Amino acid sequence: MSRTSHEVDYEILGQSLQVVEVELDPGETVIAEAGAMNYMEDGITFETRMGDGSEAGGLLGKLFGAGKRLLTGESLFLTHFTNRGMGKKRVAFSSPFPGQIVPVDLGQSRRAIMCQKDSFLCAAYGTRVSMAFNRRLGAGFFGGEGFIMQKMEGDGKVFMHAGGHVVKKQLNNEIIRIDTGCVVAFEEGIDFDIERAGNLRSMLFGGEGVFLATLRGTGSVWIQSLPLSRLADRIIASAPSVGGAAHGEGSVLGGLGRILDGD
Questions:
Q1: Domain segments of the chain as ranges
Q2: Which of 23, 30, 121, 215 to pair with 141, CA 20 to 30 A apart?
Q3: pLDDT one-digit tens code per residue, 102-145
């Protein structure tokens, strides 16, 4: 079966701060979130457009899609990179925080992917990228990123980025419970909901959060070991207070030194 999306090649470089190099034949295009590009070879041009280029309904479809992105805090625009030169050219996109870039070929499973709204990095032209809202009330109030997600449809290659190490789980009519911030993506058809994490004592003192994401069904699930929110919390907690720079991270006194100084 022929693909409707551009069939791009790629190479992922690096370990913890990765870059994906996408190789474009003449005339091929890759779409990306604004600001994701790292470098590109001569012959590649880019253009910022409202949407991914696959919207039905012309201008009205573009405005509707852009309106949903605006409501969810995303940029109104996607950047389209096209090889206008002779021969193969490469353009690279980088992850904005330590972690991994996850490639997925939608043409193999023929199922759409639902991912956290900040996880989408880039995709072959022809991929439909839209915002999706979880209709479960629990996910809306307690699911963190789970309420507003991005939906990627088509038959091309897409690239997501996630924090820390990424684990791919294959469910076969099974249930898996995950920390709400650790869910990167899952295939359409898997049921996503939020459930209470154990009894009241476990919820208050267990350290695993009050709620867990529960995924049921058959398909692939991608899990990140270090959500950006968790990394940010650790950085903030470890940051020296104003005027406390003399007692750095390696100081024996640490917080006690700041107390003795009257901080």
A1: 9-237
A2: 121
A3: 999 999 888 999 998 788 999 999 999 888 776 554 444 444 44
CA distance 249 to 184: 32
| H or E stretch covering 81 | strand 78-83
Q: Sheet harboring 29-33: ordered strands across?
A: 44-49, 78-83, 29-33, 120-124, 157-163, 99-105
Q: Is residue 127 a contact partner of residue 52, using CB atoms and an 8 Å limit? A: yes
CB 161 within 8 Å of CB 95 = yes
With beta carbons less than 8 A apart as the criterion, state whether 187 and 155 touch.
no
**Helix extents (H) in 55-136:** 58-71, 106-109
Distances (CA, A) of 226 to 121, 162, 236: 18, 8, 15
Q: Express each pLDDT in 147-186 by its tens digit.
A: 678 899 999 999 999 999 999 999 999 999 998 889 999 9
- Return the DSSP state at 241: P
Where helices occur in 131-209 by DSSP H, the ranges are: 137-142, 200-205
At 217 the three-state DSSP class reads: strand
194, 212 in Cβ contact below 8 A?
A: yes
- Specify whether domain 9-237 bears CATH 3.60.160.10: yes
Amino acid at 64: F
